[in-house]
Amino acid sequence: MKKIYLLSTILLSAVVLAQDITFSGCTNLFGTANYLFTKETNPDTYGKRIYVTSPVTGDQPCGGLGTCEFKIQWNNSLSRWEFLADEGDGTFTSPYLIYYNSTGNSTAPNPPSNNVGTWVENTSVTEGACGGNLTTSNSNFSGDVHTTTLAVDETNSGKALLFPNPVVDNIGIQGIGNAKEYQIVGMSGQIIRSSKFENKINVKDLESGVYQLIIITGDSKTHQFRFIKK
């Protein structure tokens, strides 16, 4: 396979917003450019955030793979985060897998940094031109990424509290600072509800069963609780 050459450079603003991810690495293929990934408005059906370089138009002239655009998203069937390169027309219909990480915190809504788990180079596409897996010495991967392999789950630590459990109508939550949003996930892994955080959450309309409540803070940490709806 021919080597990949990217001829475009994505200019970054002086201040990177928390919802963005910046990346530089694999310089043999991507050059020394810094790439800006912007978080899409809506997460996927599993509550995972999606990040795409902008603009996605498919008309930037590039050699090799013919792509100037990238996407970071969760692959639920393989339980891993993926770093994808567009096939050249801006649709990501048949993207190229450049890196993947299946050893980071799979419960987090955002991808791991380059020092969490292992971002594995997909040499079947890159032919080893990226020089190996992503590390802090060969890449920069910062912004809206999580930096620990463990989810923040303080259910039994005495710091965070969910009550009552089992629950009929309303769940109360105490002990979590800077909470921003919450998700209720069914046992199948599908997100049933995603909304702005409240200290009291009405679950009266849920069917009886077991659910997971995920609370996400402003610094992208997660608190997870399992509860039973009567």
Automatic annotation (TrEMBL):
This is Por secretion system C-terminal sorting domain-containing protein. Residues 1-18 form the signal peptide. Keywords: Signal. Residues 162-223 form the Secretion system C-terminal sorting domain. It comes from Epilithonimonas zeae.
